[in-house]
């Protein structure tokens, strides 16, 4: 058994046929079949049910596939991290974040990172918090940025809390609410609400503010640009942080709503890693860039509020 054979077997399982898998790995079909047969011989078991017209793995095949995927991932991570120890001139980085940090914080940090380390290949995933946490535990991501409150105290995660973000409601510049001399939360709740998919802690915070038993937006969306477009083209009210809304606000198309009875709504974002797991040098550098960008944005927000 060697990694090459395991890679061939994983390709077979992924592509569903000997012909397609052989093409993917760049072998002739006879050579590919011999590689799978050699793996079966070395493990002394049958991996593929050859009596079926469709490709099916045996029970032993499914077990081998599970271990093969872990071994191949581990080998890839080892090569990647060894390359990065030579000065971050090459290698790859995989991380994720929620829709709100993706609007301002992460692009600013990524700009700094790309300037400093142009040779690193980056796979940046924008998704909601529960999908990102699953990807982290499966070791498909090295870290992600999302609402930290649901991960604090969980032994599976290590959390580095960032500066608090202030939440707000916003609408388009022609919205009828802007004609009123004063606004309350009940006025806002008469309109459809558009927001990213919120974590349980954020939903509870929004429920307390809105006086509801639970909070669900009329439209939940994983792409912040889509939320902005919906609000720009309808009477829906958007939910965001002031940092995320800053750039769209500069264009004048969107306006933050100032409510007389709205208490300060805080979102607590953080950098979330697997507890007890070392991250690659590239991940360490990216985390440092995020922290620096967060500090700059926090200082800018404090100056603007004074």
Automatic annotation (TrEMBL):
Keyword field: DNA-binding, Transcription, Transcription regulation
Name by which UniProt lists this protein: LysR family transcriptional regulator
List, alphabetically, the Gene3D superfamilies matched: 3.40.190.290, Winged helix-like DNA-binding domain superfamily/Winged helix DNA-binding domain (1.10.10.10)
Under the heading InterPro entries, the entry gives: HTH-type_LysR_regulators, LysR_HTH_N, LysR_subst-bd, WH-like_DNA-bd_sf, WH_DNA-bd_sf
Q: Which Pfam families match?
A: HTH_1 (PF00126), LysR_substrate (PF03466)
**Source organism's superkingdom?**
Bacteria
Which residues are in the HTH lysR-type domain?
1-58
Provide the family line. Belongs to the LysR transcriptional regulatory family.
Top-level taxonomy: Bacteria, Pseudomonadati, Pseudomonadota, Gammaproteobacteria, Pseudomonadales
PROSITE patterns found in the cross-reference section: HTH_LYSR
């Amino acid at each position: 058994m060697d990694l090459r054979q395991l890679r061939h077997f994983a390709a077979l399982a992924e592509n569903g046929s000997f012909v397609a898998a052989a093409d993917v790995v760049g072998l002739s079909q006879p050579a590919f079949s011999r590689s799978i047969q050699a793996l079966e011989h070395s493990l002394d078991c049958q991996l593929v049910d050859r009596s079926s017209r469709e490709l099916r793995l045996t029970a032993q095949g499914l077990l081998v596939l599970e271990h093969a995927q872990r071994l191949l991932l581990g080998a890839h991570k080892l090569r990647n991290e060894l390359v990065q120890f030579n000065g971050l001139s090459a290698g790859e980085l995989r991380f994720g974040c929620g829709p709100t940090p993706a609007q301002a914080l992460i692009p600013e940090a990524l700009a700094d990172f790309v300037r400093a380390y142009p040779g690193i290949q980056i796979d940046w995933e924008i998704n909601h918090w529960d999908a990102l946490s699953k990807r982290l535990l499966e070791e498909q991501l090295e870290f992600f940025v999302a609402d930290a409150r649901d991960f604090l105290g969980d032994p599976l995660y290590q959390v580095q809390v960032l500066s608090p973000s202030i939440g707000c409601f916003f609408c388009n510049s022609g919205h009828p609410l802007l004609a009123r001399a004063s606004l309350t939360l009940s006025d806002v709740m008469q309109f459809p609400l558009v927001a990213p998919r919120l974590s349980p802690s954020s939903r509870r915070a929004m429920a307390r503010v809105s006086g509801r038993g639970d909070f669900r937006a009329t439209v939940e969306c994983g792409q912040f640009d889509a939320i902005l477009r919906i609000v720009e083209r309808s009477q829906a009210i958007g939910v965001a942080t002031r940092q995320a809304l800053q750039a769209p606000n500069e264009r004048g198309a969107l306006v933050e709503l100032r409510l007389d009875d709205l208490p300060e709504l805080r979102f607590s974002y953080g950098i979330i890693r697997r507890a007890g797991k070392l991250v690659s040098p590239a991940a360490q550098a990216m985390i440092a860039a995020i922290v620096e960008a967060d500090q700059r944005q926090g200082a800018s927000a404090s100056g603007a509020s004074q």
